[in-house]
Amino acid sequence: QKDIRQFQLAKSAVCSGIETLVETAGLVLADIAMVFLAGGFGFYLNLDNAFRTGILPEELKGRVSSVGDSAGAGAVMLLEDEALFDLADVITSKVKTVDLSINRSFTERFMENLLF
């Protein structure tokens, strides 16, 4: 029962986080062309099961790809091509932090997404 509860909490957090970030960007899930799942989470996640269990919103089906160690790959790319530093600066200047722990929309979604 404890494992099921932990899965339920993780499922709700991931799904609610995605939905909240998309809303914060002024978009809807249909606007998202592609989602790249990075790191161990993305590498080991079975996408079919993730959609079936509600970890990932069904609306993104067919538009999610696991990319593994993208941080390491990106670091190698920067080391091999210094011109990419300018592009990295442009991208990072546009990044906005969204604190989900104080976001009312996330909290409401989290409670709704706890259900299986």
Structure, described:
This protein has 116 residues and is mostly helical. The chain is 58% helix and 8% strand. The protein has six helices and two strands; from the N terminus they run αβααβααα. It has helices spanning 2-24, 39-44, 47-53, 70-80, 84-93, 104-113, and strands spanning 35-38, 64-68. Strands 1-2 form a two-stranded parallel ribbon. Helix 1 (2-24) crosses helix 6. The protein is globular, with a radius of gyration of 16 Å. The chain starts with a helix and ends with a helix. The mean pLDDT is 93.
List keywords for this structure.
116 residues; mainly alpha; two-stranded parallel sheet; 6 helices; 58% helix
Mean pLDDT: 93
* Spatial separation of the terminal alpha carbons: 14 Å
> In this structure, how is the largest beta sheet organized?
2 strands, parallel
Roughly what fraction of the amino acids lie in strands?
A: 5-15%
Widest sheet, order of strands: 1-2
Q: How do the strands and helices of this protein lay out in sequence?
A:
Layout: H1 2-24, E1 35-38, H2 39-44, H3 47-53, E2 64-68, H4 70-80, H5 84-93, H6 104-113
Parallel strand pairs: 1-2
TL;DR of this structure?
This protein has 116 residues and is mainly alpha-helical.
